[in-house]
Amino acid sequence: MSEHPDSQALELLAPAKTAAIGREAILHGADAVYIGGPAFGARDKAGNSLADIAGLVQFAHRFNARIYVTLNTILHDAELEAARQLAYDCYDAGVDALIVQDMGLLELDLPPIALHASTQCDIRTPEKARFLAEVGFSQIVLARELTLQEIAKVRAAVPADTVIEHFIHGALCVAYSGQCNISHAHTGRSANRGDCSQACRLPYTLEDAQGRVVAFEKHLLSVKDNNQSDNLCALVDAGVRSFKIEGRYKEAAYVKNITGHYRRLLDEILDERPELHAASSGKTRLLFTPDPDKTFHRGSTDYFSQGRKADIGAFDTPTFVGLELGSVTKVGDKWFELETAEELANSDGLNYLHKREVIGLQANVVERKGNIWRVYPNEPMHTLPGLRPGLAISRNRDHAWELALGKKSAERRIGVSATFAETATGFSFALRDEDGIAVAACADFDKQPARHPAEAENGVREQLARFGNTDFELNTLDIEWTQPWFVPSSLANRLRREAAEQLEAGRLAAYERPLRKAAAEPPARYPEETLSFLANVYNEAARTFYARHGVKLIAAAYEAHEEAGDVSLMITRHCIRYSLSLCPKQAKGVIGVQGQVRAEPMMLVNGSEKLRLEFDCRACEMHVKGKMKKHILKMPPPSVVPLTFHPRR
Q1: CB burial class (10 A; 0-12, 13-18, 19+) of residue 112?
Q2: Domain that holds residue 188
Q3: Reduced to 3 states, what is the DSSP secondary structure of residue 471?
Q4: Which of 28, 54, 247, 296 is most buried, by CB atoms within 10 Å?
Q5: Distance between CA atoms of 598 and 575, rounded to whole angstroms?
Q6: Kindly report the CA angle at 471 between 467 and 477, in degrees rounded to 5?
Q7: Are residues 394 and 249 in the same domain?
Q8: Would you say residue 6 has pLDDT above 90?
């Protein structure tokens, strides 16, 4: 089997909350799965036991698919040994790579397991990407905010054996990943340690420099969800080879649907471009039609791929409103009627917008009258404010769709070519799979001419094609004999079963894990000589790493509680001024407006929380400024292991 990295292989990388969901991801077409281990993953409530991960690895490797474990939080000194041990445990479980944020890990005695640089490493520039490739990362996950042109520049700057990974679907962090400390500042829960409180999804009132209200209680830091369906060819051309779906907190239905959707799109590209191939083996057959709009999203955006756009925000609501069905035509005391061309079902989830609030309801019973549906909601009608004729109704839970995804919804099979032949003492059945693995099963048998020669070959073909619950399906079968022989069904079945078992074992034996990439010598120099708290250096090993690579001044991570004043709690390419048409660059050349709009600071207010917005127009970035709450500042810095803290010298 070919070994990564292969510049012509396209990898569809799916998330897994659990090992069971990981299996479904592979069956639905994933070439690789990323999953949290027992600790130190950037989704602290999505951990899995090593035994479960080892089982998933065995399953994945049958299809030449890969398993990556997230070890991508920043680590306290007291956690380094536990993290090192976890790396060895993952390696012993057969894991293919670790996804890493903390550079301190590279100073430890790690197993020869491949390392991937997490998006938490904030990889935005060709210089940073090249540095990470030179210190031993074989795959790097780019910042979600990059344009196609910026991705291409990164690709051009890194060695050919470095795989570029990019998010193509799912929820978007409004801040550059790894550059958001607002959760820790306000709640003590660190996003860099897998425990984000999602302050970005809260409603805020926006005030200008004079204290005037510009927007009232809008979700101004909440952006729509990522969907790169229309940009996959352009991403391939820009150099992306691993296409990542977000969602380690998502349930199986989401993973099945979104993985199946992108499997179809990537297969279309592979059909059109024979120089490319899938990174794993086998073909997926979906037993449903994927539709990304059916599962949770906050509206879709391709973010900055094609450049800055004004409509990336999900300002009205951070919830899933789903697809619009139609409008209300009539309202009764226990029901309302809805005109729609769609099929409805009992237990569908419906909703509508009332005074900027999404009102949800469940359809208890639905009755069809042509294009009109009478809906009896679970909720009493008098508790549904604003429900009146003309109101638009959307569906965010399609019950029939969910039932379909709750059943078996995909199969994955590896194509084999077979030869059935006579031997001196009986018969043999040889298999060769799409990866070139070849096996043969033989049986002694006293050959006798077939009584019905015209039917003998068809009978053998029918028996030998029945691969049933194995991973294989028959593409071609050659029969090589000097005359039609009598072949009992029991013998054909035994040969097929033995050959399939041999092929399964042969595939696992031939599987090669990618090895840790050697770091460049002498050590590569980091692109900068000073690091602020935004570099997330939280342990002495990370300090040693950066010092060894030429950094002279290193500040402690925000979690070390050494930043008491106002700092950039969030750095984002999303600009509220731009989204509200208040950007000075937008005003250039507009008669009567030019020179009137300045990028003055603004204020976000949520209850007693106040955050100052500053605008770096040269970099086209917005900084959300604030300070750590006093009671959090006084708390011991976060770590899993109980520690005694001493005053700094």
Answers
A1: exposed
A2: 175-223+525-649
A3: coil
A4: 28
A5: 14
A6: 45
A7: no
A8: no
